[in-house]
Structures are given as structure tokens and as C-alpha cells.
Amino acid sequence: MKVVAAMSGGVDSAVAAARAVDAGHDVTGIHLALSRNPASYRSGARGCCTIEDSNDARRAADVIGIPFYVWDLSDRFHEDVVEDFMDTYAAGRTPNPCLRCNEKIKFAAVLDRALALGFDAVATGHYARLEHTVDGGVELHRAVDHGKDQSYVLGVLDDRQLRHSLFPLGETPKSDVRREAAARGLLVADKPDSHDICFVADGDNTGWLREKLGDRAPNHSGRIVDEAGEQLGEHDGTFGFTIGQRKGLRIGRPAPDGKPRYVLDIEPVSGTVTVGPRERLAVETIRAGSPRWCGAPLPDGSTTEVTVQLRAHGEEHRAVVRIEADRVDIELLDPAFGIAPGQAAVIYQGSRVVGSATIDATERVSA
To answer: Quick one: where's region Interaction with tRNA (predicted)?
Structure first.
């Protein structure tokens, strides 16, 4: 097959590209330019969108012996990922930009361009597995290394995208990938993993949002109250909070019982942030929308026992899901804490990813 290997400049994508070559594919390496001003994105080990990363990717491609190009997708990335990030926070919700990047950029814009240029598939360094079924279908499964598993952020991929994807690292522990990179002579073998949000230059999400949102934020200031409505403090922007947050509340006085307070609710129109004890974060029911199915969808009107993952590095929760048209109702058999609208609920059956949906609302455990 003719394969585009998306090379971020890190060790995982470099080894994935090399393995695609070993598998006999005709491989071309590409690096995505996601900002017209790369210095405004993270540098060093904290990001994946810098000039440094582009150079690391080019050097890795030279060692592997494959052609290498840079594809400028900065406009598409800004519109589909950065703008979505800002809009979601302004609405009092919590986005996952990495998931959105996979959906809109790596497996949509990149895949569409690759297919148009005559390529057959896109290979990435994600830790996930693809399994082909007897009827010719394809399923997305968790990686063997559950500590590095990235199937959660791939839960937005549909059947067509999966059929044109390769995940060469899904069967391999991360430690073995680093050793393999060193044996191949790849200089990124010891490069630290990227983390956090690549387009927030200094890691200060709140400061970045305050600067970028401007008048788009409904309220730059407002009240912090307890569940009885008593004012405990003030804030300078609801976008600085997320459901379940404990640190940085700046309330100034402890709860009567001396226990920490957590963000329970965010009302962006009035600018009100409600805080309370951790036990009030316990959620038993989730309503989600905009489902995307990785292969065959769950039938409309069906009720199915599954597990769900609600954060990129969160635990699995036993649940029952009910499908009604474009709505997914999730009843958690074990409560989850600090679940925020805007996050993704990714549905699993065993190791298989069934699909994902965006959380619209939650219902907490009765007091």
C-alpha cells in the first residue's frame, strides 16, 4: 500500500513510520504545520507543533529513508480545533482538543488529502489496535499497553476512517518502542512525550483564554457561591473553571466542616460558579449527543451493558446505554466524579471501542 506516515517529531510516530516501511508499504512521511507562527505554540518536550519538532521529524525520515514533506493545515486547525476550544469554554463546557484534532485534522483533513493524492492509508503513532472481522469489517481496540492506550481519543473515528488507518504500535509496550528507536538510530529515542495542549504556549489555559476570548466570553467576572447561594468569592472569568476543579478557587475561607470545595456548576451567562463538597460531584446518569460509531452502531432503541471511559486517562465505568436516534443515555452502575458537559463518553465492549458521544448533561446521585 501507499501510506502517509504522520510524523509529529516524537519517538512514537517515528517508529510507526519505520514499521510501516518494514511491513512493505510505500511510505511517505509528513509533518503537520498547525500554526503560521510556530513560536506561539509549545516548545521542547511540551508540545508537538514547533519548528524543533518539524526538524526532528525530518531527521527521523532521513534515517528511515523515506520522502518527507510538511503539510500546512494551520487554517483548518485554527478553525476546527482552536476555535472549537474557545467556543466550548465560553459556553461553560469542557472540551478535549486532542480528540477534536484526531476527528477533524489527522483522520479527516489529512486522510482526505492523502486519498486524493493516491495514498491508501494514514499511519500514526497512536497506541491502539485494529482488528479485522470475518465479514470484512474493522474494529478499533485498546492497545496492549493499557498505560499508554489512546483508544479514547480515537473514539470519534468512523468505519471509513478506520479502514484507511494504520496503528503499528498497538501491540507494543512503550518501553520497547524506545529501545527499538535507539536500535534504529533514531535521535528521538529519548525525547520526552508531549503532553497538555499544544497551542497554549506557556501551559496557562486560563490566561490564554482570557487573552483570546475577549468579548466572546459572556462574563469576565462573576460570583463564586455555595449550593445555598451564599457568595464566597469572586472570579474574573468562568472560562477559568471546570467541573470537579479543586485548586485555584481563591475563596479565602474554608467550608464549615473544613473539607475542600470543588466546582459543581458553571453558569456562563450570569457568571456564577457554584462550589461544594466532593460527594456532590457523584454522577449516576449522563445524557450525550452527536454519537459517532467505530464500525457498526448500536441499534436505535437498544439497551446494552457496556463500559464507558469519560476522560482521556480515566478509568472504565460499568454502565447501561440506551440509544434513541441522536441521543445516548448512560446509566452508570458505579458513580463517576467530576464529569463535565463537553467531555466525550467513549463506549467499550471489552477491549473494543464501540463509539463516542459528547456529554450534554449529567444527573448527580441524590443527596
So the answer is: 148-150
